[in-house]
Amino acid sequence: MEDLHLSSNNFGGVVPAALAASPALTHILASRFQPVHWGIPDRVQPGEGERVVTGLSLAGMNLTRTIPAAVGDLKNLTWLDLSYNNLSGAFPAWSRALCSGSLTSPTTPSTTAPLPRDIGSLSPAMEHLNLSSNSFSGGVPSAVAALPALRSLILHTNLFTGVYPAEAISNLSRLESLTLAYNVFALAPVPVAFAPG
């Protein structure tokens, strides 16, 4: 099995660890799916090798508990969707693979925080990053330009302010889609850097 889609269901109980261990699995979509517990082991066991999962969607999961540390062993992620979670910046430290630790929802809907500056340390293979419909505030860190493979960057429906780091973003030579709508960026001309090259 290469693709596992569990989105928009009412499953409960434990998601078996065996689902995460499938050697052929490349995409996991669990959007708007809230199991009682993800039965994923804390770490990939020695000798198992790296997971080949290249896509992970946890959109609309109301993330309030620790993401299994095994997610940090997904060394080959090229797209990550964390939209619709009310994330407000309570990220763990990013690793070169993805992350470990916990992603939490704010205690109240008004809780906001900046997008972590070390977001640039995500996997350099990351092509699609969707952080829309959360509660991020402040400026967009220029470190996002440290993701050279990015083809789409989706940041709509947050509380970003200030001037967007257009010069840094213009260095993303592979970027095809940039979504900034429904934020509160400072009034300024559309940057020339956004024009097709």
From TrEMBL:
Organism listed in the record: Oryza glumipatula
Highest taxon in the source lineage: Eukaryota
Protein name: Leucine-rich repeat-containing N-terminal plant-type domain-containing protein
